[in-house]
């Protein structure tokens, strides 16, 4: 699938690849951590509209920053956490001079290499389906705890790169950071979703790889070696929606990302997402979002 949104990789370099959905960073380029004071050195990349070639945790301890994440405009201030997921469209639009904090980015391949039982998507803030809470406010005590973990991570990453087990050390700090973050942000009682079901996570992985192919519920069920009814039951239990709705919403999300990047016409987006024509794409988009593609683009286009 053609994609005009450039990929920002873990080294803060822009990759103008054709198909970011299949991009996999080399293992040695699968982790990076920096202080926000140093982000200004790479801000020319972060200020461009880009697709994230990584997962990330942006901790704002002091100062303010403004971000566009998919169709949302987000403002961060003291003790705010922002979570970035692979393939989301992001743009850092402002970062105050007094900003202090951290940005840690990594690939899910890096995290899942050292664990057999824990999926990255089992953490609520790194699950594609739970995108309603990209920013979290934490307490001063929680911020201090996370700051210590970030500082230890930076020390190991910058000073001990020759250590034969540096990857395992960095993974251990990352694992602690993810657990402590989940603990400190708490659960949204009415909205939090338990994503620990491996079958559902596998379905989401398949959907990420195949959303533009317009596969049916039966197609996904076959790939999972279960019945369509069982797949629907799992989706309803975990997500509160049937499988068809989840499939359609993933396709809608990609359409939105391409629209507000502003680089393709509606007809080109329809073609690249494998709709039979622009009219059918527009009907699909309006049915799910309540507005036509051009109206959405005019409201959300990124510069």
Indicate the topology.
Blueprint: E1 7-8, E2 14-15, E3 31-35, H1 36-39, H2 43-46, E4 50-52, E5 55-62, E6 65-69, E7 72-76, E8 80-84, E9 89-95, E10 100-106, H3 108-113, E11 135-137, H4 140-159, H5 166-185, H6 198-210, H7 217-224, H8 228-239, H9 243-261, H10 266-272, H11 278-289, H12 293-300
Parallel strand pairs: 1-4
Antiparallel strand pairs: 1-2, 3-10, 4-9, 5-8, 5-10, 6-7, 6-9, 8-11
Helix pairs in contact: 4-5, 6-7, 7-8, 9-11, 10-11
Question: What are the key terms here?
Answer:
2 domains; alpha+beta; single chain; Arc Repressor Mutant, subunit A; 44% helix; 17% strand; Jelly Rolls; 6-stranded mixed β-sheet; 303 residues
Q: Can you summarize this structure?
A:
With 303 residues, this protein is an alpha+beta fold.
**Under the CATH scheme, which class of the largest domain?**
Mainly Beta
CATH fold naming of the largest domain: Jelly Rolls
Total number of domains: 2
Helix fraction, binned, reads: 40-55%
Estimate the mean pLDDT confidence. 86
């Amino acid at each position: 699938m053609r994609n005009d949104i450039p990929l920002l990789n873990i080294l803060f370099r822009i990759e103008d690849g054709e198909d970011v959905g299949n991009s996999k960073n080399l293992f040695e380029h699968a982790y990076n951590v920096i202080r926000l004071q140093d982000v200004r050195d790479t801000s020319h990349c972060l200020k461009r509209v880009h697709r994230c070639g990584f997962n990330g945790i942006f901790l704002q301890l002091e100062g303010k920053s403004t971000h566009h994440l998919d169709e949302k405009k987000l403002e961060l201030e003291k003790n705010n956490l922002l979570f970035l997921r692979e393939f989301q469209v992001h743009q850092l639009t402002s970062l105050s001079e007094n900003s202090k904090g951290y940005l840690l980015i990594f690939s899910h391949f890096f995290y899942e290499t050292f664990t057999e039982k824990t999926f990255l998507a089992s953490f609520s803030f790194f699950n594609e389906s739970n995108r309603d809470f990209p920013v979290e406010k934490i307490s001063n005590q929680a911020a201090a705890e996370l700051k210590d973990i970030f500082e230890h991570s930076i020390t190991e990453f910058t000073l001990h790169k020759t250590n034969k087990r540096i990857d395992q050390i960095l993974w251990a700090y990352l694992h602690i950071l993810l657990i402590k973050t989940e603990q400190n942000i708490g659960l949204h009682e009415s909205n939090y979703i338990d994503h620990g079901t491996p079958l559902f996570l596998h379905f989401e992985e398949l959907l990420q790889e195949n959303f533009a192919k317009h596969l049916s519920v039966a197609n996904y069920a076959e790939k999972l070696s279960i019945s369509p009814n069982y797949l629907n039951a799992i989706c309803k239990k975990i997500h509160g929606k049937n499988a068809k709705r989840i499939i359609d919403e993933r396709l809608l999300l990609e359409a939105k990302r391409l629209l507000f990047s502003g680089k393709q016409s509606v007809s080109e987006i329809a073609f690249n997402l494998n709709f039979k024509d622009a009219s059918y794409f527009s009907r699909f988009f309006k049915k799910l979002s309540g507005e036509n593609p051009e109206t959405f683009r005019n409201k959300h286009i990124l510069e």
